[in-house]
Queue: 2 jobs
Job 1
Amino acid sequence: MQVFGVLTSLLALLVQLPGSAKTQLTGVQTIALPANTPGDALGLAELGTAEAVERLCARNITSVQYATALLQRGHLWECLNAFSEVDVERVLTEAQAVDDRAAAGRDVGPLCGLSIVVKDLYDVANYTTAAGTPSLTGNVPQNNSVLIDKFLAANGVVLGKTRMHELAYGVTSINPFFGPVLNPYNNTCHTGGSSGGTAALIAARATSAGFCSDTGGSCRIPGAMCGTAGFRPTSGCYDAGDGIVPLVPSRDTPGMMARSSNSAYEQAFTALQEAGVELVDVDFSSVQSFSDQLFPDVSGYTFEMPGAISKYLYRHKSDLSFYTLAEEIASPTVYSTVQGIVEKPAEVYPTLQDYINIFSTYRPQLTAMYNAKYDEAEVDIIMTPMTSVPATPISATEPYTSFKGRYLLNRDLLRVTSVIEPEIGAPGLNIPIGLGETSLPVGLQIQARSGALCNASIFSCDCGDFDWVLTTRIQRLL
Ligand SMILES: *[C@@H]1O[C@H](CO)[C@@H](O)[C@H](O)[C@H]1NC(C)=O
Ligand SMILES: *[C@@H]1O[C@H](CO)[C@@H](O)[C@H](O)[C@H]1NC(C)=O
Ligand SMILES: *[C@@H]1O[C@H](CO)[C@@H](O)[C@H](O)[C@H]1NC(C)=O
Ligand SMILES: *[C@@H]1O[C@H](CO)[C@@H](O)[C@H](O)[C@H]1NC(C)=O
Ligand SMILES: *[C@@H]1O[C@H](CO)[C@@H](O)[C@H](O)[C@H]1NC(C)=O
């Protein structure tokens, strides 16, 4: 951790050119509150999203009061390095604008001035979209991504942007350029990734919810590591438009994270048991090995990432090329993986034909196998542990963690139950179920067939009348 701190300060010095946009974005973001800011005597930072919205809409609290409470909490937790950019004046101005509209008797629903955070992958006009990579620190879009436009039209307020794993290409949010995001439950541990900043701020009660994105677990894994709900919707449920830096468009989806109280979960669980629900084991090993065999992780990245990022840069009128961006990647792991993509000989596996086969043949087969598990067990919902381990120390660095005497890739250790869903577009929801042996959060994943849970509400964790089962998918690693 200290090594990263020193490295970050050094890098900050190196890029400290006069007037450079880069200087203000590196290092821990400070949250300077206006003088005479009142304390959070009402405990507003503790409110869950549903209750905050209810009280905002009832004008029981103002948007400015709520945002102020959250900014104060963010100020106390600056050390987490979870914010990539905060503009206190802008937050308070936008919150005040909602309060003014409400005072003038205008409709401010449905969000009524709720402020939440946004992953650094999303364009929010006049904020930097750096996607956690050095070469994009000058990228300040003038337009919002589609979802942010909808969020603002619903009278939401952006509280700030959050740090992430470089280019969303990793699962720890250990970022050598911007520094690692620290886990509020134990600040020597990572937060999971790639949406680590959003997860850390929800856990620290500096926001009640936030935008994330999920290509291979990036909403769900940090949710599990930080004890928050993390939701990957069915692919295509929400339009990413041109305003989210892409990774693998055939797997990417925007998602949401929110606090989710354990007591509500326990109540739901007790209610299920009282209703006589029987838990059944489902053996997923055939689906897992089919996926392992025919869906090399690298294929989506190889055949989609260069084109998708080039298109994002072109649409944003950037002078950068994908190759320059790739050359400037700071994380050694992300750098070498992306260089492997750039330099990959056409005849080496996976070839373009292997990639085409995925869409024409393997993906429909995998989808059918996956859905058949639900049909065989006669269930709508399958539950799995979200990850095989809780957050590990940051000092164990990327990309390996020592686990039961073996060195395993973080990607393998944390993504066992996250990678099939993106491949077939199915949804997954992480819900926190308490703290494990190491006093770090543990998550449980709820999965469903592709197309389900499109409109699931993670704010109230109302999962409806489903039959529940447990799977043994995670046992592959244990
Ligand atoms: C706001 O709601 C809380 C909780 O229901 C209540 O205790 C408080 O008196 C209300 N305050 C105002 C100003 O309405
Ligand atoms: C962005 O900033 C520019 C310059 O200050 C301003 O003209 C523009 O309205 C801002 N755009 C948004 C969407 O806030
Ligand atoms: C931003 O939005 C405006 C208005 O919709 C559009 O004309 C413009 O092309 C957009 N800019 C970019 C860079 O997409
Ligand atoms: C935090 O995690 C470290 C391992 O990185 C462990 O040694 C330490 O005991 C933990 N601290 C607490 C308060 O649990
Ligand atoms: C989600 O909600 C929208 C609007 O309420 C509705 O049109 C759509 O059919 C819903 N999707 C699912 C899968 O339930």
Note: The first strand starts at residue 83 and ends at 85.
Job 2
Amino acid sequence: MYRTSLLVLVIFISLARLCSSRTNVLFLIADDMRPQIGAYEGKHFPAVVSPKMHTPSIDVLASRSLLLERSYCQLAICAPSRSSLLTGRRPDTTRVYEIGPYFREVGGNFTTLPQYFKMNGYLSVGMGKVFHPGEPSGWDDPVSWSDPYFSGKTNFESFNSTWSAVPDELLIDNPLIDEQIANQAIATMQRLATDARSGKQPFFLAVGFRKPHLPFVFPESFLKYYPVSTVKLPSNPYIPVNMPDAAWFDYPRAQKTRDVRAFNVTGESIQLCQIFWHFSKKAYYCSVSWRLIL
Ligand SMILES: *[C@@H]1O[C@H](CO)[C@@H](O)[C@H](O)[C@H]1NC(C)=O
Ligand SMILES: *[C@@H]1O[C@H](CO)[C@@H](O)[C@H](O)[C@H]1NC(C)=O
Ligand SMILES: *[C@@H]1O[C@H](CO)[C@@H](O)[C@H](O)[C@H]1NC(C)=O
């Protein structure tokens, strides 16, 4: 029914070379990323980025980085992709194919990326959506982290709607969860950088963002980047021929929202009305722009 290609975006930034030559690491992760940022425009890419995306900060970072031009997602859903990336194993090994299972219970007691840094003398600090959150998924995998985990709290998110443009003034006192996470990351980095300069442990800081995952909740002012005429419906609405069953995900969360339920979809159907598609896509683009601008 609702199908976002998922591409995990990972950015490593070396912040400082310590005297001991151990580099601090900032690891940023967001999911449900299509190749839909300005940095993917250009002759190396087979598909045109349309509409033109407003993602100036990530584009500048990409221009100074190693940008992987042919990257593929493991499964088009968040928890399996995250488990796979963080353990360095395919979903066939982690046995996480959907939201819920905890890889240590269903796949194996694998060493994760943050855990590996921790085992090698780093202070490993995590916040936001790095592992899939929640109890069944293993409570953000405590063994991976040296410090208590910061999750933030959701504001303006509900099952009422797949998307919501929140008036900017309402966000001043109640920031969206990703902004709380970004603020926490900045404060933590300032604290850890001081420690690092004083010769304490090097750090691995993992900062995970919720958007552009559903529901698409973003400040209303971002609507201006995607005028109605720029948002096009998919030219081919059909499932690829011979697609493996595991690649299809009939988004249960989207199906629970009131706006989708009103269409009486069964999970097999992609026959949502065109207006719905149109606004969903626009809201997705706004979420990408908002998330990647901070
Ligand atoms: C998993 O491995 C960690 C060390 O990496 C160990 O502390 C823990 O006890 C193991 N858990 C199980 C269930 O074997
Ligand atoms: C969701 O809808 C219900 C019923 O209309 C309403 O009471 C509730 O406040 C809504 N929640 C949000 C976050 O908008
Ligand atoms: C969905 O089902 C309800 C109840 O059967 C019906 O009233 C409504 O018109 C249906 N909506 C659509 C979009 O078919």
Note: The beta strands are 9-17, 23-30, 123-128, 163-166, 203-209, 216-219.
